[in-house]
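Quality-control log, excerpt.
Job 1 of 2 completed; input and output follow.
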Amino acid sequence: MIAMPSRRPIAPALALALALGLALTGSLACNRKEAADAHDHGAPGAAHEAPERPSLAPTIYADGMELFVEYAVLVAGETSNFGAHLTHLEGSQPAKDGRAEVILTGAGGEQRFGGEVSAVPGIFRIAPKPTTAGEIQVRLVWKGPKGQATFDLGKHTVYPDVASSMKAQVPEAEGGISFLKEQQWNVPYGTTQAQPRPLYQGFEAYGSIQAVSGGEGRVLAPVAGRLEGPSFPSVGQIVRQGQRLAGLVPKAGSDLSLGTVQLDCERARLRHEQTTANLTRLKALLEQDAVPKRRVEEATREAAMAEAELKVAQARKDEVTLGKGGLAIALTSPVSGVVSTANGGSGVQVAEGQELFYIVDTRRLRLEVQVPEAQAGRLAKVASVWFQAPGVPAMLLEPSRGARILGQGGAVHPERRTVPFLVEFANPNGALKVGLNGKAFVRIGSPSKDLAIPAAALQDEDGLSVVYVQTGGERFQRRIVQVGARDGEWVQILVGVKEGERVVSLGSHLVRLAASSGKVPEHGHAH
């Protein structure tokens, strides 16, 4: 049963899961006529043979595709209807075009039988009719506009008559959870093969994205007044350092006398000199490990603010002494970057000290990871950091990709009991934004090669780690697994899955729903 919060709209994914559950509970229990209408995989106009010969349903992977095919054992002079389901593994989408061909090689020479894609995308109906009894090799080849795939179905016996074919020894139909191809193709679904891969030891923590030192700036209104400008900047606009963003006409009564602006400019200059000297002093002390790095970062921000205030004061002085632009004070960008905040517009009244613009350079950013104090001793051996923020693709920050490990703070936060750890990295496509919070995985030392699957394949069921393994084209098994180290998007599997098996890495909750929907027919297709 799926618990839903009351009086809240059903999320699209949940609605899809509920709809699928209803379909699995109801429509899969359809009678054979309904099944034939919905899942007719045989040749056009073909009916079930009488008597029905033993059948096979192998699943084969080759050339980036999956073949799940159902067919009866081969008999000389008799048609065996092949219902071939072809899926592109990338995206788990059905083959919607091309031509499939069954090739029989051996007794009777080489025989080819082909078929186009049916009205149901992904399903190809082929009707081989071998001419000679004996041993043959069977292959199925698909050719499409963008490539081809060859599947080896192995050696088969072509029986001389139907009576002898009834004694054929074929693998028993696999049990487990039924989840048909037509369902897989119409929901978010995908599988991944369990394989050994390099995994790092490490630990998880929370991180936040910050601007680099000098990579952000705020423009405040130096006095109360009215904004003016023919093209007021908008959020998302790229500006350069020193670019005029707007003008500010002081409110009537504001003191813009020569003496006042000169005094304000002198005060700003002295503050700038003081903060710059303090920053230089703290940097020297930091080299001797005499002060925490946090003090230097705070002093850097104070110096940057003082520099911005000096520029504004100097601009006001120039306005009065040189008469540039009348009485409008020029508001310029303190850094090059993207306008992230733009408050106001031409003609809008603003108060003194009001923030008008926030500009941030997103080309290079910093990740600050809050490392639990119990893990702080391992930070000297950090190899890289994996970071995942909601709605943003995961990013691996490592020196080989241009990231720079800046180091760790020298003090534990008294309340959070964490140590800040900083990594600077390039953000060329602007995917990450200042202020984003997310999950970080700090990778320590060197990797070891271990059997791994995507962490997204794991389902938490009553406190147990569960995966769903695809044992056939439409058959799945529920497995309880024992997990080991987690490295970003991958997790080590100690027990429960073997190398080469395919686990459902996308849509495993839908397979779980299929498992809980009740008994399903042993055969969901008509041939």
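Job 2 of 2 completed; input and output follow.
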Amino acid sequence: MMHLHRALLCLLLSLFALVARSGEVVSQHFESKLLQRGYRYQVYLPDGYAQGTKRYPVLYLLHGAGGEENEWLDPIGLRQILDGMIADGQIQPMVVVMPAHFQGWWVDGARDQGESALLQELMPHAERHFRVDARREARLIAGFSAGGFGALNLALKYPQRFAAAALLSPAIYDPLPPAHSSAMTQPPFQTDGKFDRQRWQALNYTAHLAAYKRSGLIVPLFILSGDRDTYGIALQSAQLYEKLRLHQPGAVTLRIVEGEHEDPVWRLGLPAVLRFLNERLPPTPMRQTLRVMSYNIRCGSCERPDDVNHWSRRKFLVADVIQQSGADLIGLQEAELFQTRDLVALLRDFDWVGVGRDDGREQGEMNAVLVRRSAFAISAQKTLWLSPTPEQVSRGWDAMLKRTLTVLQLTSRRTGQPLNFLNTHFDHIGKVARNESARLIAKTVQGLGPDAVVILSGDFNSNANFDGYQSLTQSLQDAATVSHTPLAGGGISFNGFGTDLQPDNKIDYIFVSPAVEVQSHRIVTDLYNGLYASDHFPVLVQLRLP
């Protein structure tokens, strides 16, 4: 069974790592007057903490009797779990404080004032130095083993301080610890070098339970224990549950899971614990993460049927590129009607919008947009022509061909948040047309309002040195220039089916509103046994909406 536990743990952490954006862990230290020594603690800061000014909920995590401040990080893997759950939207971003008090049991015991140091020194120090919401409704506490003992005591004694608490294999022995428990030999419960029964009972949760029930305040509790816990904690947990079940119905949860008094139980149980605690926090709008692709798929009638790059063969490759990307929104360029229909049929979970540039209906290439149906609803749509008469089917300035801008208003099915998505394809000949088209789009973006969230994808048929690029970046940001992570895939987006690989020939872009966070930017250069899916490589970005 231990091998199965370890396999599940590895799978859990690898799944979180696939989606996670990394938070930061920082070490802190201050001199404790109450303990008369240095006090160390670690702090987890969620991704994005450094870029903003908001205050976050705070969770205090207490380690076991023989632990220290890194106990939750390794081997439990707290950081990876938090990163994954925050990125996946299961919990809201929070600051997590992990103090160290070796053999202290988080009480004012025979040796140390552990409880007082935590409440009067550690918490004020953390809440001064980090942007946390110090209100009761935004403060949480949890612990495992002796840390569970401490978390329960603090929640019952000071219900005015904590919104919720979680106890993982809590060492809450009533009436006495078992003979092999470290509580029998560690300093907090000793008198004259021996275990003191009366001291234990005065410091255990049972001494505070009656006053807690009289307080009129409820601290929701999550209790977790392994069924084979060597210290009999499954029974102790069940007894605590019974003592509270009628007092706070619906606000106490008990989980007895397979396992012993060990890290795997706590690590596997931690996601459920975090979800429970998160549900007791004031609701906050979740920032949605999505992937966006800009992809010139090459017109479907541009190659002869016997050409290796004919659409009848390439469509499966293009669909696979999109499928593997996990993109939620895809701006297509050079898409003919039958190509768009082919892709929607192959990809299944997508709606689409687009009109032919030649007649405003079905004739000619379109700047189609594929919208993942399960992620976004299409609220409104229109097509503008890149010309002095954008509302009419028209060719603009010195352009060789009619060119269009597809404009969508979308609504997130998850958050209800509105989003504006624009997709375009600039002319390949007309220099004036490219610059004027950029000004037209910039004006269109401004017309959406100062608070509008905008994403613009497209083939701009130019490097970033044309005047129109400057027009676009007055109100939008080139995603490649603000990505949190290094750019991937090189600097070529036009490839000519492998025959025209000029260095730094990037003519496809994604632009975003300044409030949109660009987490990654990649040019997807995958080949299929040497075959190119299109004469362009797509641009793929991962974004987080404000």
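Post-run check on job 2. Confidence is low (pLDDT under 50) at residues 1-20.
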